[in-house]
UniProtKB/TrEMBL annotation:
It comes from Oryzias melastigma. Keywords: ATP-binding, Chaperone, Cytoplasm, Nucleotide-binding. The lineage of its organism: Eukaryota, Metazoa, Chordata, Craniata, Vertebrata. GO terms for molecular function: ATP binding; ATP-dependent protein folding chaperone. This is T-complex protein 1 subunit theta. One of its GO terms (cellular component) is cytoplasm.
Length: 298
């Protein structure tokens, strides 16, 4: 909505100047009037807005909002169901978006323009996070991000597995028993693969100030008794264990699946490397041999 363009115009008299300015104003008015007659009440632009365009927007009671970010502009188009137009033209009904309410408000010391949908089944939602300190804001942001990602995972696959290291210990037990049935040297690699699953419950124990070996022993003992859902009780005294399913401590199946798969692929990639390229010092002139103290006089 900027009318300033680079060019050279030769004007011979005052009448030509008036006609030139009048033609520019008429063109801008016709464009803004066409947008209004199409049924639009709010115009969102990603570029600069000229004073003349604001004048005619106020005349035809159009609200003009400027967004500097193209990402925000695309996100807003997706939210209201609009199509971004490359130039100032009257939009068609299919190109216009719809929003229940658009208003200016303040969040703290910042003025924001709110595009509000009264319906709850919107495609995009905005969460405003406020806190007293930056650390608190970071914690809340991580919690919201984890919750949204967990919901996305559960939409793809709603299966859940016990948390607190219960799944890892059960996998380690099953893989170890399978390794004992394999002949030859393969059983050693299978058992080492099973030992790798102990890393997560061991990390939980060490972060809680509990000895990892004691917790691993208790978890193995509980799982050998048939308690497959037994995991680390972080709220208990010492290396305590409890049923994760009854406690409601569950994790998405896809998180475990992709975590194990990616870690396994990384380990296989490292093991497949049969040659290590050593980095050598860069070339250049070598220091002269012999006398080391060059600054001393002879």
């Amino acid at each position: 909505m900027v009318t300033e363009t680079k060019g050279t115009v030769l004007i011979n008299n005052a009448q030509e100047l008036l006609n030139f300015s009048k033609g520019e104003e008429d063109l801008m008015e016709s464009q803004v009037k066409g947008i209004k007659e199409a049924g639009a009440t709010v115009v969102v632009t990603g570029g600069k807005v000229a004073d003349m365009a604001l004048h005619y927007a106020n005349k035809y009671k159009l609200m003009v909002v400027r967004l500097n970010s193209k990402w925000d502009l695309r996100r807003l188009c997706k939210t209201v169901g609009a199509v971004a137009l490359p130039r100032i033209t009257a939009p068609t009904p299919d190109e216009m978006g719809h929003c229940d309410n658009v208003y200016l408000t303040e969040v703290g010391d910042t003025q924001v323009v709110v595009f509000k949908h009264e319906k709850e089944d919107g495609a995009i939602s905005t969460v405003v996070i406020r806190g007293s300190t930056d650390n608190l804001m970071d914690d809340i942001e991580r919690a919201v991000d984890d919750g949204v990602n967990t919901f996305k995972v559960l939409v793809r696959d709603k299966r859940l597995v016990p948390g607190g290291g219960a799944t890892e210990i059960e996998l380690a037990k099953q893989i170890t028993s399978y390794g004992e049935s394999c002949p030859g040297l393969e059983q050693y690699s299978i058992k080492k693969f099973a030992d790798a699953f102990e890393a997560l419950p061991r990390a939980l124990a060490e972060n809680s100030g509990v000895k990892g070996n004691e917790l691993i022993s208790k978890l193995y003992a509980a799982h050998h008794e048939g308690n497959k859902n037994t995991g680390f009780d972080i709220e208990g005294e010492g290396p305590a264990v409890k049923d994760m399913l009854k406690a409601g401590i569950l994790e998405p199946y896809l998180v475990k699946h992709w975590g194990i798969r990616m870690a396994t692929n990384a380990a296989i990639t490292v093991l497949r490397v049969d040659q290590i390229i050593m980095a050598k010092p860069a070339g250049g002139p070598k220091p002269p041999e012999g006398k080391k103290n060059f600054d001393e006089d002879d």
